[in-house]
Amino acid sequence: MKSAENKAENPVRDEFLSREQLVADHLPHVKRIVNRIAAHLPSSAETDDLFNAGIIGLIEASLRFDPRRDNTFITYASYRIKGAILTELRSRDFLSKSSRRKSRDLEQACLKLRLSKGREVNDDEVAEEMGITLDKYYEIKKLAGLSFISLEETGFWSNSEKNNLLDYLVNGNDKDVLELTRIKEIEKSIAKAIERLSEKEKLVVSLYYWDELTMKEIGKVLSLTESRVSQIHSQAIINLRIMLKNEDVIDLIPG
User: Fold this and answer.
1) Which of 34, 137, 251, 255 has minimal CB crowding within 10 Å?
2) Residue-range domain boundaries for the chain
3) Cα(247)–Cα(216) distance, rounded to whole angstroms?
4) pLDDT along the chain (255 residues), means of 10
5) Distance (Å, rounded) from C-alpha 57 to C-alpha 64?
6) b/e burial code for range 37-60 (CB count within 10 A of at least 16 → b)
7) Which CATH number among 1.10.1740.10, 1.20.1260.10, 3.50.50.60, 3.40.50.2300 corresponds to the domain 1-95?
């Protein structure tokens, strides 16, 4: 009888152990994601809390992951980990409304100068237009490269819309035809915008987001300093956002 009871309990125990093992096996991935995001933050930023938030995201992923879906755990977990880390950042000054507003001011200054001069503009010109020092400009520019597009900017406001979007990105589910159409339009616009980047910007974006290399690793590939790669990445994000705003794909959020 005791043996039968133990046997009945085994599936639950085995599932717990397998999920516990998933978390243990993917802790290095959490650290990698934290390091990638921290590369865009001020040097004074503490990463311990970000790592803890990433672990929470990983645990949630282990609990919610359905192996019957046509995707890998690492793909699903990455979204959850990044989401948890960005949520943690939004609770701090790094992604506060003030920080986001400064990033938007930078984009607006870039756009204004490009329209008036009819060409690409350099960092000194943008900093002068904003009335700030070059060091302050680089600080804002670095933050501008941290978050590409918020869901609110693309019109996904409610929690159900955000969850449906996440479900589609991870599992390919298309529950809502209207939402799916919006997502497809955004995907197409982003792809077109990326093609309009400079060759070096496209390469950095590809290596960073598709190959998931760190800034340091990209620097080794391109024979550039990590700082220079970070600058190219931030400029690429700013350029993409400006192009998507011009196409009315994203909108500025007040405040």
Assistant:
1) 255
2) 1-95
3) 33
4) 44 56 89 83 76 92 79 83 82 68 86 88 92 90 67 49 54 56 77 91 89 87 91 89 79 44
5) 10
6) bbbbbeeeeeeeebbebbbbbbbe
7) 1.10.1740.10
Span between the terminal Cα atoms of the chain, in Å: 66
Q: How far apart are CA 154 and CA 151, in angstroms?
A: 5
Sequence-ordered list of residues with C-beta below 8 angstroms from that of 105, at least 6 positions apart, any chain: 130, 140
* Cβ contact 178:161 at 8 Å: no
Contacts of residue 197, Cβ cutoff 8 Å, sequence gap at least 6: 205, 236, 239, 240
Q: What is the pTM of this model?
A: 0.63
Question: Is residue 240 within 8 Å of residue 190, measured between CB atoms?
Answer: yes
Beta carbons within 8 Å of 198's beta carbon, 6+ residues apart: none
